[in-house]
């Protein structure tokens, strides 16, 4: 098999030095070049905002940011389905007084909801709140371990979005657009900084909860950026990456010879066409070869001491959020730029017990409580929290009203999607400790102070990674694109 691949590669390489190749392909290419100069802005092979091509054949070569960065890595914890801020962080005693009363018409007037119809009942908090730490942050009894870490985080209590369906809202939160085709934030970071570890991907994705996000793998895609910058999905169960082992009958030397032969042809292709996707192909072949040795080691949590397993509550050999939190620490420790965790199962409409506010949310919260707290503590004890930005949140929030899908009461208590106010938090890498910014009204329906948009979240993450979000651009379809589109402001109020 290997000999056949090498033979085919040699034949392909020989074509580049033949007269027939020149007459057949190069002359045709002159016409394509002329057409490309006329189309100009439609050139999909343009590079950075300056139009410069990469100086190296390695698109993941480490690069300097715009200014000194506070963060070397990002761990982004996304709770797919949108956790209820009213049962976790946004304490509203006035809402409890309105429990089971009909919602005032003034609140509903002119508003759109995903499922609420007619006049729903108000739903008081289904958790017990208390204040914690020197910051006196309100946290519910759903998160007893996290309540001990509140002095290390900054809360954003008035985050807003304009998308109330899961797929578009998740796309917006991770790519800056509700439409398909834009690069994810992890791709932007890797495009801007490259990778510090040539044996591992710069952008790694870990999922739990049994399903991927509603928006699918596009939330970690590279969009119009070269595909080398897309997230690499790894697994905490079975082989960490699909097809990472060599097929039967192929040893490491044979694998290396095959990849070397293929990439020699790819380099000739790049010299001929200057297509950055060819560089991606070269880099991905080489990285895949290196990952066969490096990934199984870093993705193995069995070698961690017992006290670490107790701290995180890990379940080796299973797909679990706790395992992924521990893996996230190991990955940033090895120099991975961006680690994205997606945990599915937070869509608490009340359609069943596992998706209810009073039972399902409590159980999901307990699944993440210990691992997230352990992650923050572990990073802190290892001196990594100062250079690792940790972000937690969903794609939108939940309503103060009880969901009444099609005007009917649900079998269990549930809340509908809500875009006007929800809570996120950040920690580490220059984020103010024990901070809080933003405030909602007395029932948690609308933001009244410190409103934060999705692009503001993006701008702040990029700021901590050393980027001016307005200058990290990529030329595509005739104009420079950026993660924050035409908006975004850094949230200075939570920066230390």
From TrEMBL:
Pfam families: DUF1501. PANTHER family: BLL7424 PROTEIN (PTHR43737), DUF1501 DOMAIN-CONTAINING PROTEIN (PTHR43737:SF1). This is DUF1501 domain-containing protein. It comes from Chitinophaga chungangae.
């Amino acid at each position: 098999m290997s000999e056949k691949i090498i033979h085919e590669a040699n034949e392909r390489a020989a074509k580049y030095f033949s007269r027939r190749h020149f007459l057949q392909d190069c002359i045709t290419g002159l016409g394509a070049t002329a057409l490309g100069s006329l189309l100009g802005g439609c050139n999909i092979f343009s590079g950075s905002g300056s139009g410069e091509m990469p100086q190296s054949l390695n698109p993941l070569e480490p690069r300097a940011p715009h200014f000194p960065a506070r963060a070397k890595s990002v761990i982004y914890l996304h709770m797919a389905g949108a956790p209820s801020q009213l049962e976790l962080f946004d304490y509203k005693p006035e809402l409890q007084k309105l429990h089971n009363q009909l919602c005032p018409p003034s609140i509903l007037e002119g508003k759109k909801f995903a499922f609420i119809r007619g006049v729903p009942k108000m739903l008081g908090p289904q958790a017990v709140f208390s204040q914690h730490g020197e910051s006196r942050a309100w946290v519910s009894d759903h998160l007893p371990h996290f309540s001990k870490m509140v002095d290390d985080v900054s809360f954003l209590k008035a985050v807003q979005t304009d998308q109330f369906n899961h797929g578009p809202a998740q796309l917006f939160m991770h790519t800056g657009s509700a439409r398909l085709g834009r690069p994810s934030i992890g791709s932007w970071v890797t495009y801007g900084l490259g990778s510090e570890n040539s044996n591992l991907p710069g952008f790694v994705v870990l999922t739990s909860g049994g399903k991927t996000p509603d928006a699918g793998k596009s939330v970690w895609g590279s969009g119009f950026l070269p595909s080398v910058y897309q997230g690499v999905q790894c697994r905490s169960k079975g082989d960490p990456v699909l097809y990472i082992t060599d097929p039967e009958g192929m040893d490491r030397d044979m694998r290396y010879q095959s990849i070397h032969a293929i990439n020699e042809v790819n380099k000739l292709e790049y010299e001929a066409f200057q297509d950055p996707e060819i560089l991606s192909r070269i880099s991905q072949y080489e990285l895949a070869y290196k990952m066969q040795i490096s990934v199984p080691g870093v993705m193995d949590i069995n070698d961690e001491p017992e006290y670490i397993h107790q701290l995180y509550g890990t379940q080796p050999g299973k797909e679990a959020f706790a395992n992924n939190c521990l893996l996230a620490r190991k990955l940033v420790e090895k120099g991975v730029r961006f680690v994205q965790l997606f945990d599915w199962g937070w869509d608490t409409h009340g359609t069943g017990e596992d998706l209810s506010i009073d039972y399902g949310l409590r159980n999901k919260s307990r699944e993440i409580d210990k691992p997230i707290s352990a992650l923050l503590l572990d990073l802190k004890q290892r001196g990594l929290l100062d250079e690792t930005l940790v972000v937690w949140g969903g794609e939108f929030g939940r309503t103060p009203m009880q969901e009444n899908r099609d005007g009917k009461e649900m079998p269990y208590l549930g809340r509908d999607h809500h875009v006007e106010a929800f809570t996120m938090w950040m920690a580490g890498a220059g984020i103010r400790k024990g901070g809080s910014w933003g405030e909602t009204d007395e029932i948690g329906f609308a933001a009244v102070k410190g409103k934060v948009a999705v692009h503001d979240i993006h701008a702040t993450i990029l700021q901590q990674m050393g980027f001016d979000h307005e200058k990290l651009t990529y030329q595509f379809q005739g104009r420079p694109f950026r993660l924050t589109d035409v908006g975004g402001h850094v949230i200075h109020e939570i920066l230390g």
